[in-house]
Amino acid sequence: MQYLDMFLKESLRLHPIAPFGPGRTAQESSTVMGVHIPKGMKVRCDVYSIHMDPEHWGPPDPSLFCPERFTAERVAKRHPMAWLPFGAGPRNCIGMRFALMEAKMTLACLVKKFSVETCAETQIPLVHVARCTVQPEKAVTVRLTRRHVVVNNTEE
Ligand code: HEM
């Protein structure tokens, strides 16, 4: 489950489904890194750029899929707001833990019974389109092959 958690976090870093989600209205005027933000201005953060910033995510190259970026040691050294698929702060996603648990349960049940491979119909590289959330352009088609696992002398 530890590696599955790292795998899922890396998937959401490379493919955040709600990168336009975290937005706030300035409650008071301020200046952040030389940029003046007047009271009442709506501000959104650019999750894609933060998730691809080598200062937080390199090495290896942030465009590569690498779950090892999420080992406890590496997470402890990283800025707490470098990973934002669920936003951050007091108004972050209320369903984050539920969504992560549900995804991990689904994946664990799936890979227990099936091997998952790309096939001729798999769109590579994956193309994103922005609708209400960011989605794959086409259905993600893969080949599932049933695993033969023997548990307590019973073939599953
Ligand atoms: C992979 C799945 C999900 C992703 C990536 C996601 C992402 C987000 C993001 C980016 C925000 C904005 C956070 C911010 O402004 O800081 C948000 C807010 C929210 N999400 Fe999710 N979400 C997911 C699943 C869910 C689920 C399963 C639920 C409910 C069971 C949920 C309920 C909410 C609610 C109620 C808010 C508004 C929170 C507030 O304004 O205080 N989300 N989500």
Automatic annotation (TrEMBL):
<dbReference type="InterPro" id="IPR001128">
    <property type="entry name" value="Cyt_P450"/>
</dbReference>
<comment type="function">
    <text>Cytochromes P450 are a group of heme-thiolate monooxygenases. They oxidize a variety of structurally unrelated compounds, including steroids, fatty acids, and xenobiotics.</text>
</comment>
<dbReference type="InterPro" id="IPR036396">
    <property type="entry name" value="Cyt_P450_sf"/>
</dbReference>
<keyword id="KW-0349">Heme</keyword>
<dbReference type="GO" id="GO:0008395">
    <property type="term" value="F:steroid hydroxylase activity"/>
</dbReference>
<feature type="binding site" description="axial binding residue">
    <location>
        <position position="93"/>
    </location>
    <ligand>
        <name>heme</name>
    </ligand>
</feature>
<comment type="similarity">
    <text>Belongs to the cytochrome P450 family.</text>
</comment>
<dbReference type="InterPro" id="IPR050705">
    <property type="entry name" value="Cytochrome_P450_3A"/>
</dbReference>
<protein>
    <submittedName>
        <fullName>Cytochrome P450 3A11-like</fullName>
    </submittedName>
</protein>
<keyword id="KW-0408">Iron</keyword>
<dbReference type="GO" id="GO:0005506">
    <property type="term" value="F:iron ion binding"/>
</dbReference>
<dbReference type="Pfam" id="PF00067">
    <property type="entry name" value="p450"/>
</dbReference>
<dbReference type="GO" id="GO:0016705">
    <property type="term" value="F:oxidoreductase activity, acting on paired donors, with incorporation or reduction of molecular oxygen"/>
</dbReference>
<keyword id="KW-0560">Oxidoreductase</keyword>
<dbReference type="InterPro" id="IPR002401">
    <property type="entry name" value="Cyt_P450_E_grp-I"/>
</dbReference>
<keyword id="KW-0503">Monooxygenase</keyword>
<keyword id="KW-0479">Metal-binding</keyword>
<dbReference type="GO" id="GO:0020037">
    <property type="term" value="F:heme binding"/>
</dbReference>
<dbReference type="InterPro" id="IPR017972">
    <property type="entry name" value="Cyt_P450_CS"/>
</dbReference>
